[in-house]
Amino acid sequence: MSKIPNGHEIISLFESMYPKHLAMEGDKIGLQIGALNKPVQHVLIALDVTEEVVDEAIQLGANVIIAHHPLIFNPLKAIHTDKAYGRIIETCIKNDIAIYAAHTNVDVAKGGVNDLLAEALGLQNTEVLAPTYAEEMKKVVVFVPVTHAEEVRKALGDAGAGHIGNYSHCTFNSEGTGTFVPQEGTNPYIGETGQLERVEEVRIETIIPASLQRKVIKAMVTAHPYEEVAYDVYPLDNKGETLGLGKIGYLQEEMTLGQFAEHVKKSLDVKGARVVGDLNDKVRKVAVLGGDGNKYINQAKFKGADVYVTGDMYYHVAHDAMMLGLNIVDPGHNVEKVMKQGVQKQLQEKVDAKKFNAHIHASQLHTDPFTFV
């Protein structure tokens, strides 16, 4: 029988994909309005929180809105309910709607805004444009009786240990003899109280991302037959997967800048785009960064991009790009709307895997304040 989750359980699933620690320093993420301790059957994924989006949530029966752009970015000095901003807050409180902001953590994380944009543009062999985070790695060593080594190895790997590149369940194993004396009050799996025991054991070594330490250790201890498990955790200088803002990769085929601009419009569902550069220039290597990517033109050029797709391009930064010889296609900030369908699908899959009775909805509203004429 399926269970109706509460808001904390929904957000826990969300943060397993988009952890807070990936957000840029000072970003205003997390719960902004309401509480998460109530049952949740409908969740709305939105780019922006507007009065219309809140009305959409009410119509759906959603009592959690997960928004990419924080509603509250600067400290509030007053809440005037006769103005739109105050009405949003008032309506959410009156209707028990929680607002949860997930901003740059969704930009940085795997499967987030920039991965979705790169996928929409058909980019291949992508890598991070501007690295912001490298996963801390640790080594776990555990001593297991030979009879249970395979079971413990599987538990470690299934919990996420031992990932090296495209390989999973990586371990190193060496055999030896373990010794111990069970004390009074113990219930040893092997041996008798007060007597020295010698057991043929396997030393299993593997690596883990620091973020998975609790999960991996719990799985390992659960699979281990001993009452007291002997294990060590070591910090490593090795760094794990690098994450960051933006992506850079290749189009399947070279095209002109003009053709590429049309490709961007069609792929990202926009009616117009600002272009910097000669429309006849040939482009194939593409950098893309959702939202405002003005400060990353140098990274795009340094990494060899023929063209940089980003929003909110400033006049003087566009001149800087011209001097760098970097073509620009600016389809606007609103192309981050790809996160609505992307996150909806990802979170619904997580919810279904848990057998929760909850429905995740992507907002159907267009919240771009700009109109191309």
TrEMBL record:
The keyword Nucleotide-binding does not apply. A divalent metal cation binds at residues 68-69, 107, 333, 336. GO terms for molecular function: metal ion binding. Keywords: Metal-binding. InterPro entries: DUF34/NIF3 (IPR002678), DUF34/NIF3_bac (IPR017221), DUF34/NIF3_sf (IPR036069), N-reg_PII/ATP_PRibTrfase_C (IPR015867). GO terms for cellular component: cytoplasm. Belongs to the GTP cyclohydrolase I type 2/NIF3 family. This is GTP cyclohydrolase 1 type 2 homolog. It comes from Bacillus wiedmannii.
